[in-house]
């Protein structure tokens, strides 16, 4: 059940109606729990059972962690939780990757191995909910938060349907306290949520899905396309992945908000960033802060005495982040490239410290280089193999002119136009202005925008890109 | 509470006002809906454009016509007769009565009368061949497809209501009309129509080449695979000695369509014919239709090719691509038999007036 499907609209309308007619917080939480499992079960009920078992396990381990003081036992419980979650992730997401890599490696050493023929179906959103559960048990282990005593509350936190399948990854210290109070909504909050939902819908359906066929055409068979078509397709993918994922996040935040819950901001105009570090502070914020807190810091984080150690930690963290995105070496290299980009930037800052006089120039050049570096890295992310990636990268760097086939020239202008729109909307505080309108004007503008959005529906729905992660 | 309800009501009204106003502006600004994201219809529209002023007849309908009507065979059989013409195959896989209606309207809108050059090769008739048995609407899979949404205006819905009769089961009647009404709502909401205009897909050149190679003029041919060959042999050899005839009554929409097409055409004296396409399932039961259809401006023939009792030569494995579609050889034979039947019918009922008068 996708947020952009008619059946989700019907499902959510019923949820809203029942939810707000329930009087007690307990009844509402029970209802959200049921709705969340129904939502997840609509993909495959077996995965809903798996989610229930995993969540119950984590709830139990966390509860034991607060009940005992023995350091060794506590380590045992947190390790059990880590093992359980990572095993599920490794089996469902990385089984084929590990096996195929082993077979490939063996073949390089002239051993003939053949992989198993079983086909493992990836449970939707497995990377998101396992990371969310991990952060819970680790936080309890670190004594940063108390364990949730009620199983019902924990199950609701771990399965909360707005963010269950594609984030934002919700941290327990942010979300759990909200569950203790009966939620309420103001008119301004409703307007803001409705605005955000429509914005997300437009990003996903009207922009990302309409661009997707052009991107697929070029990336699936790049050989006959011209260099310019390849560059344009890369730019279009840069827009597509942002609109697809941030669109989902916007809708998730909006859906949660209409139930009275706040989720964290997940995107903050990342393509306006003027450095790779800045980009990762604005792109998939809930994941980048997760890997910072649980991988980078665990590895030692920033080492003031030896910056090589800092760079090693940074590279390992980004390689892990790459692998989180997909079970393929192209994703690992993508993560590594982003890590390397951050190392280079830090070294540059060290040897050429910023001065106030060069500030503007530095920011403009930084933005241009960052954006193009991110585009180049997206090629690795989108390509199904390294040979496709290499062809596309060469064309992006103008080292190969490619063939003669083209895609419409005007598509190259979409990126700059959208970027300018985003910049302008931030500058004039568009969201705040929309939400501060009186209800009548807001409704008028809202109806008009929906009419426009529906007319921009693409030929067919495409699943959210981040569902595969 | 009263004030809250009033506020809510005014917000709902304003939402509707905003929605309708913008939807209306978009709807009025969209040009030819038929051409919007037409998918496989795009190739036929291109063919129509290419042959404008050079072809005077066309066959419309579903994949059965798409694979079964050979314009070359049709023209050759009618050559020298008062029905002589140059034709196109404008049928589309997955096509429906609604689609053949709008396509025929588009064809007729740009139709020119054949020039009077007194030559033996001149065209004399403008024939519109329509498939009688095509489904009323698109399949439910196509409801959300712009190809379907684009054509479901009020006139189309009115047409669909004429494709139902009280004799039909309630489920079929509600289904037919319900689909068209739903598609009409999506049509006036402009669902996907603006994006279809902006992100227009390119014409499928491979398909277009298939349909135009060897002067096919829209005929699509699927080669038969050995696997299907065996299955078809089994179907034919396993058929009962005598197939069961099932009467197929005409619907009001069948005659009103002819009236609508006549009214829309700038060229006078069109010739109409309905055709029932053959399928191998006819070996078990076949539809029996009237031989002609009466409408306000006269009578037109219905050529029922789904008759193993009348055309046994068609029901041989070598003529079929699968159990519902003819191959190129089969299309040639079927079209020849159909054209001969048309000649006989017009010889018996009076020759049509020259197209254009």
Structure description:
- The complex is a heterodimer of chains A (469) and B (357).
- Chain A is mainly α and 469 residues long.
- Chain A has two domains: 6-182, no CATH class; 188-468, no CATH class.
- Helix content of chain A is 70%, strand content 0%.
- In chain A, helix 4 (71-108) runs antiparallel to helix 5 and helix 13 packs antiparallel against helix 14 (359-382).
- The longest helix of chain A has 38 residues, at 71-108.
- With 357 residues, chain B is an alpha/beta fold.
- Chain B is built from 13 helices and eight strands.
- In chain B, the strands form two sheets. A six-stranded mixed sheet of chain B has the order 2-1-3-5-8-7, sandwiched between helices. A two-stranded parallel sheet of chain B has the order 4-6.
- In chain B, a hairpin with a 2-residue loop joins strand 7 and strand 8.
- In chain B, helix 7 (154-161) packs antiparallel against helix 8 (170-188).
- Chains A and B meet through helix 8 and helix 18 of A and helix 1 and helix 9 of B.
